[in-house]
Design goal:
single chain; 2 domains; 5 strands; Rossmann fold; 212 residues; Arc Repressor Mutant, subunit A; Sig_transdc_resp-reg_receiver; alpha/beta; 10 helices; 5-stranded parallel beta sheet
């Protein structure tokens, strides 16, 4: 099995290159992998169980706000995720923490701070900038409800949020239409939603903060 790896998920090649440079300098014992979208992130994690930490930009193609973070945390609960974002608003930092991130690094942070943060998380700790935002009970409840979904149900939920019909979801995810119907029923029950529209609004709240 290959040696331990770190995965950088960001759709900006120049920023990815800058992060990889920091990782090679500070953590040469790790191999590095890259992903530029939510889909390639998921595929890379399935293909590389040796990944020990994910550095995640929230605004990649295929991600809705915090959806990629929630998806990784749901599918790989033992894998720490450090969010890297250009939006370091205290509420965004607090939400990332409540949705399961082990750390948050503003993109404006110097390379030294980035290296320190990653090292601390790899040791089992966490790293967040000082925050003024209060903990949100609504976000805590939302995270708890979404945590009940299986990874496949989470994928179906994101398709629901895009307004896709069961038939379209089945085609997109390679499932039988009846299987999608069963998933939708389970999703609505777990999220305590009475309609597909209400479930879609719930997903929309994951991207309520602009500039992620």
């Amino acid at each position: 099995m290959p040696g331990p790896a770190l995965l950088v998920a960001d759709d900006h090649p120049l920023f990815r290159a800058a992060v990889l440079h920091v990782l090679h300098e500070r953590l040469p014992q790790f191999r590095t992998l890259e992903a530029a979208s939510a889909a390639t992130l998921g595929a890379a994690l399935q293909e590389h169980p040796e990944v020990e930490l994910v550095l995640l930009d929230l605004s990649m193609p295929g991600a809705r706000g915090f959806s990629a973070l929630l998806h990784v945390r749901g599918e790989f609960p033992g894998l720490p995720v450090v969010v890297i974002s250009s939006n370091d608003d205290p509420r965004v930092i607090r939400r990332a923490q409540q949705f399961g991130a082990a750390g948050f690094i503003p993109k404006s942070a110097p390379a030294e701070a980035m290296g320190d943060a990653i090292g601390k998380v790899l040791e089992g700790g966490s790293w967040f900038p000082p925050m003024a935002a209060e903990r949100s009970e609504a976000d805590a409840e939302l995270a708890s409800r979404l945590a009940q979904l299986t990874p496949q149900q989470f994928r179906v939920l994101l398709c629901l949020a895009d307004g896709l019909l069961n038939k379209q979801i089945a085609a997109q995810l390679g499932l039988a239409e009846n299987t999608v119907k069963v998933h939708v029923t389970a999703i609505l029950k777990k999220l305590a939603c009475y309609s597909r529209t209400q479930a879609a609004v719930l997903v929309k709240s994951l991207e309520a903060d602009n500039g992620l």
